[in-house]
Amino acid sequence: MIAYSRSPIFKMTSRSQYLSEAQQCLEKIIGPHELITLNEQEPLDFIFHGSFTEKMVIGDLSYGNDVIFKTKPYTDIHRYCITRPKKGTPVFKTEEGKFLSTSDNATIVSPYDKFEINIEKDCIQSFLSFNKEFVESVLADLIQRPIYKPLVFDHTMCADNPKILAWWDLLETVNNILFSLERSSYFEDLKKDFEYILVKSLILSQNNNYTEEMNEISIQFPEYLKKSIEYIKKNIRSDIDAKDLEYISGVSKQKLTACFKRYMGMSIHSYIKAYRLKCINHEILNSSSDINITYIALNWGIRHLGRFSKEYKEFFGESPSTTLKKMLKNTSSSKALEELKGQHLLPYPNTLTLKI
């Protein structure tokens, strides 16, 4: 039996003694992997109970047997995943060495990390994951440009970091708010805002390979550059003239051009093009159904459709149609649940409180 709510938040409990069924569930909430049981004489008692939206999964995870979870060598997982044990101490192994996940020092892994986890049978983990494309889109907003290298977090979320402690409090608060608002007519927009806030605060709180760049941007951004960027964002659907930017910023085109190259790593024209493509990418990823890509491109100020697809692929590594196909696959929540038939799926209570 498969039971889930009609709201944008789906609640699910998956329980099974079969390795293949546990792997099917983990494929949905994490991505491609190998799962190995270490004690074949004892049955698996896999349990995941929690909830998920299009961009976020949150819940509790246990195996009831000693297991090893391994990423595949040539395939990335799909999500940024956070593990905070309520009981037990999972051991992570990477090329750099070993580290532990504890209730005080949780662990975060990126889609690009290669690792394995040794998990004892009595271990219970609070689990959270975010869609990779969504996290990267939030990062692009923070650094004001497209991403050219993968976002990779430091693995340990240290309890002695006051920002991390504040983030856990924020997570619990947002989680409770989401469920209290799920039947509201304004829920969909609010849900997106709260998901965005969670990911943005995570990127700013947990050290990663973009932290230094974000610190430099927040400290050194000249005011006239901020005004120019704000103008571009507000008028991105229209043609933006260099003379308008000169007027808005109060500096010459030459000075503004040099500033863009210094802080943004590209020319004014390249920044406008990159931001316009990012807006199109964001709209495709946040659509709830099949859409007309040509209409979206024209609506965001694209004037040369012949170049659009090529430039889009250069920035995002895939064509607009491929992005659309991935979006349709990721948002097909009911189909994803159907694929989990055969497991012992039970209805989950109407409320979920993350105990952290």
Low-confidence stretches: 1-8, 333-356
Which bin fits the share of residues in helices?
A: 40-55%
Got a strand count? 13
Q: Mean pLDDT, as a whole number?
A: 83
Note the gap between the termini: 30 Å
Which structural class do you get from the secondary structure elements? alpha+beta
- Going across the biggest sheet, name each strand in turn: 12-9-6-11-4-3-1-13
- Major sheet description: 8 strands, antiparallel
Count of helical regions: 13
SS strand fraction = 15-25%
Question: How would you describe this structure to a colleague?
Answer:
By secondary structure, the chain is an alpha+beta fold. The chain has helices at residues 19-29, 132-143, 162-181, 187-205, 211-220, 223-234, 242-249, 253-263, 268-285, 293-299, 305-316, 320-330, 333-338, and strands at residues 10-16, 34-37, 46-52, 56-62, 67-70, 79-87, 91-94, 97-100, 106-109, 116-119, 124-131, 156-157, 344-346. An eight-stranded antiparallel beta sheet has the order 12-9-6-11-4-3-1-13. A five-stranded antiparallel beta sheet has the order 2-5-10-7-8, with helices on one face. α2 (132-143) crosses α4 (187-205) and α6 (223-234) packs across α7. It starts with 9 loop residues before the first strand and ends in a 10-residue tail after the last strand.
Give descriptors for this structure.
5-stranded antiparallel β-sheet; alpha+beta; 8-stranded antiparallel β-sheet; about 350 residues; elongated; single chain; 13 helices
Task: Give a short synopsis of this structure.
The protein has 356 residues and is α+β, with helices and mostly antiparallel strands. It is built from 13 helices and 13 strands.
